[in-house]
């Protein structure tokens, strides 16, 4: 039974909306067809606020809050598409492209990449920052899948889907800051790790960091829409 205390009324982009207590700003915005860009968020997985692309402005606060983890409050006034936010998102995308090697023309996910799509949507035509070009490895030791760390944006979708949906806890993050990297087990090669070969991490990767080597050269779509269903089935069990 829903009580009056469980229902919140707020304003998003001058549109009055209703929400349930505990919902995030992102959830409520999408329920009302208000677009907020994201990369690390994926329905069916927990949210970590890693990419910061979903930052929004709250009236009365100088801080920008990540919509994927910020919960709604009664009377809250939210702006999702101001000049300040567009500049922040543009800068974040530039940083992502400059941090590692994202050359779309030679990437297996060209045309099916969420990072690429967001860059086009946000009007990113070039990167003004110096490229770091770190020397990162490509692990093709798995009989079917490959991880190219040069394409990884550290969204941790692979880590969360492996732990929360598959329940295998194979993926994790090692290192800090610019030295962070996703690893399998205790930095074992993917092919000799405890991987269950389910492929969920590959399907939910938003870039070409994880890919099915059997599909290289062909159309390379990914299907993250299956995760909400899997999450419901796991909770039912």
Description:
- The protein is 24% helix and 16% strand.
- The protein has 237 residues and is α+β, with helices and mostly antiparallel strands.
- The chain has two domains: 4-81, Roll (Ubiquitin-like (UB roll)), CATH 3.10.20.740; 94-236, Alpha-Beta Plaits, CATH 3.30.70.20.
- The longest helix has 17 residues, at 83-99.
- The model has no long low-confidence stretch (mean pLDDT 92).
| Percent of residues in beta strands | 15-25%
Number of strands: 10
Low-pLDDT residue spans: none
> What's the average pLDDT?
92
Regarding quaternary structure, how should these chains be classified?
Answer: single chain
N/C terminus separation: 24 Å
The CATH topology label of the largest domain is Alpha-Beta Plaits
Quickly count the domains.
2
Structural class: alpha+beta
Rg, Cα atoms, Å: 19 Å
Helix content: 10-25%
**Count of alpha/pi helices:** 6
* Named CATH architecture of the largest domain: 2-Layer Sandwich
Q: What is the H/E order?
A: EEHEEEHHEEHEEHEH
Topology, please?
Blueprint: E1 7-12, E2 15-20, H1 25-31, E3 55-58, E4 64-66, E5 77-79, H2 83-99, H3 114-121, E6 138-139, E7 145-148, H4 157-166, E8 171-174, E9 181-184, H5 200-204, E10 210-212, H6 227-236
């Amino acid at each position: 039974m829903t009580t009056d205390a469980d229902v919140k009324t707020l304003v998003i982009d001058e549109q009055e909306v209703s929400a349930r207590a505990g919902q995030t700003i992102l959830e409520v915005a999408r329920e009302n067809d208000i677009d907020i860009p994201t990369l690390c968020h994926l329905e069916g997985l927990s949210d970590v606020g890693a990419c910061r692309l979903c930052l929004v402005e709250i009236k009365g606060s100088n801080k920008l809050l990540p919509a994927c983890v910020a919960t709604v409050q009664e009377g809250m006034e939210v702006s999702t598409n101001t000049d300040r936010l567009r500049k922040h998102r543009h800068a974040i995308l530039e940083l992502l492209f400059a941090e590692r090697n994202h050359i779309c023309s030679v990437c297996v996910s060209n045309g099916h990449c969420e990072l690429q799509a967001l860059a086009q949507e946000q009007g990113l035509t070039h990167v003004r920052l110096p490229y770091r070009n770190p020397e990162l490895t490509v692990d093709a030791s798995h009989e079917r899948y490959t991880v190219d760390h040069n394409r990884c944006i550290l969204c941790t979708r692979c880590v969360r889907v492996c732990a929360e949906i598959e329940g295998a806890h194979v993926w994790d993050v090692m290192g800090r800051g610019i030295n962070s990297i996703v690893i399998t087990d205790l930095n074992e090669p993917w092919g000799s790790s405890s991987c269950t070969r389910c492929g969920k991490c590959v399907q939910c990767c938003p870039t070409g960091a994880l890919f099915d080597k059997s599909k290289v050269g062909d159309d390379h779509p990914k299907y993250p829409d299956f995760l909400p269903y899997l999450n419901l089935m796991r909770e039912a069990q």
